[in-house]
């Protein structure tokens, strides 16, 4: 029997880690290079929405999500004014990336995966056997992404979404009971630093009551993080190499679907990569299958999300959205199923 070929994964976010773990179940040798380390907080709504059972099962994710908080309903707020609440068409899950990524990384190593943290790999090379799971496309435009965990904050629903002037953000609970506040904001000249950036940005975006709620609750500064946040892609990336997760397609964050897409991309890549590793196919053949299946699966939701995204960003469109939500005219279920 031939020795299996090694798969190299560049990037240990949810896409890279879940792929590595699934490949180890097929006895594929996997080396995963991650620029950072675990555990660590990341700018993310930590709200997993649209994860289908078959992906969850194929990647063996269930055991890592047992304590995730279930979220069943959402209330939108326009400039601090609550709109009518909605039931989510499917239960979403709240779990911190600090916990979840570290669980996946630990399981990958326990399954015999070779995890090299603190190692950044140049992205120009594209040898056979290499999978890019390096996260979002690095070209702009970028807004600022902010996140912090808050204790003792009472929510008016499982999930609160707030629309402000060139800003939107979500509030929902994660596994330890803390509320995760995470959002994207148009850049402004704000002099506050660290965790103080959050209430300062909320004020600047016209979200005064929310800023006050945040100030009077217990924020945990150790969970604060900031990043340049992408507004998302309109199309799936060119198939010039094997990419999964945001590196293949970054959906606008308002969908809460980026994590599920990262898992789905990983799941679609498992069988073609297994076949390559065990000499049942050549690299170009496996790469082609991965590119085609991801394009087919993600094309429509990316396009629709890019059309809807301005309704979350621009003041007059936010008002229109609020009117439609208020009058019950938003076909929430239809949009949800087209976006997930
Ligand atoms: C503000 C905001 C809120 C969001 N909220 C949600 C949400 O609530 N729900 C949801 O489903 N999605 C959300 N998303 C999207 C979600 O975070 C991403 O879709 C998801 O993290 C993609 O996973 P990934 O593994 O592809 O990339 P990432 O999680 O970004 O991981 C990529 C990894 O690659 C590493 N890396 C990069 N370059 C290299 C290199 N050259 N060498 C080695 N390592 C490298 C990085 O350190 C990183 O760990 C949000 C995004 C933003 C910006």
Task: Tell me, briefly, the overall form.
Answer: globular
Distance between the termini: 41 Å
- What is the count of helical runs? 10
**Unreliable runs, pLDDT <50, ≥5 residues?**
none
How many beta-strand elements?
14
Question: Considering the protein shown, what is the CATH homologous superfamily of the domain at 7-67 and 96-138 and 232-312?
Answer: FAD/NAD(P)-binding domain
CATH secondary-structure class of the domain at 7-67 and 96-138 and 232-312? Alpha Beta
Average pLDDT, all residues: 94
Q: Give helix % range.
A: 25-40%
The radius of gyration over CA amounts to: 20 Å
Q: Provide the CATH architecture of the domain at 7-67 and 96-138 and 232-312.
A: 3-Layer(bba) Sandwich
Question: Which structural class is indicated by helix and strand composition?
Answer: alpha/beta
CATH third-tier fold name of the domain at 7-67 and 96-138 and 232-312: FAD/NAD(P)-binding domain
The share of residues in extended strands comes to 15-25%
Order of helices and strands: EHEEHEEEHEEEEEEHHEEHHHHH
- Compounds present? flavin-adenine dinucleotide
Instruction: Profile the largest sheet.
Output: 9 strands, mixed
Structure, explained:
It is a single chain. The protein has 340 residues and is α/β, with parallel strands linked by helices. It is built from ten helices and 14 strands. The protein has helices at 14-24, 53-59, 97-110, 197-204, 208-215, 258-277, 283-308, 310-313, 315-326, 332-339; strands spanning 7-10, 30-33, 47-48, 69-78, 81-82, 86-94, 114-116, 130-132, 142-151, 159-164, 167-173, 179-185, 218-230, 242-243. The structure holds flavin-adenine dinucleotide. Flavin-adenine dinucleotide binds next to helix 1, strand 3, strand 12 and helix 6.
């Amino acid at each position: 029997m031939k020795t299996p070929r090694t798969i190299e994964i560049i990037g240990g976010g949810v896409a890279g880690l879940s792929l590595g773990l699934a490949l180890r179940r097929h006895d594929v040798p996997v080396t995963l290079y991650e620029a950072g380390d675990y555990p660590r907080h990341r700018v993310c709504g930590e709200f997993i929405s649209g994860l289908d059972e078959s992906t969850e099962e194929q990647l063996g994710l269930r055991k890592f999500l047992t304590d995730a908080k279930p979220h069943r309903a959402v209330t939108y707020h326009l400039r601090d004014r609550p709109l009518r609440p909605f039931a989510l068409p499917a239960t979403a899950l709240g779990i911190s990336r600090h916990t979840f990524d570290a669980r996946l990384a630990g399981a990958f190593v326990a399954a015999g995966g070779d995890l090299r943290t603190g190692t950044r790999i140049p992205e120009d090379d594209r040898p056979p056997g290499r999978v890019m799971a390096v996260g979002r496309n690095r070209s702009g435009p970028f807004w600022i992404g902010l996140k912090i965990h808050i204790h003792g904050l009472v929510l008016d629903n499982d999930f609160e979404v707030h629309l402000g002037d060139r800003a939107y953000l979500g509030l929902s609970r994660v596994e330890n009971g803390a509320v995760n506040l995470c959002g994207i904001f148009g850049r402004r000249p704000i002099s506050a630093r660290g965790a103080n950036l959050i209430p300062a940005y909320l004020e600047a975006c016209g979200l005064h009551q929310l800023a006050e709620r945040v100030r009077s609750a217990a924020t945990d500064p150790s969970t604060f993080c900031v990043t340049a946040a992408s507004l998302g892609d309109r199309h799936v990336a060119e198939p010039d190499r094997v990419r999964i997760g945001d590196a293949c397609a970054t959906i606008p964050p308002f969908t809460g679907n980026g994590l599920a897409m990262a898992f789905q991309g990983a799941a679609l890549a498992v069988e073609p990569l297994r076949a390559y590793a065990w000499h049942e196919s050549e690299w170009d053949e496996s790469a082609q299958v991965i590119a085609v299946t991801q394009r087919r699966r993600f094309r429509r939701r990316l396009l629709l999300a890019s059309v809807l995204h301005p309704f979350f960003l621009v003041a007059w469109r936010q008002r229109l959205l609020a009117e439609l939500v208020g009058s019950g005219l938003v076909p929430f279920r239809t949009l949800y199923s087209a976006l997930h």
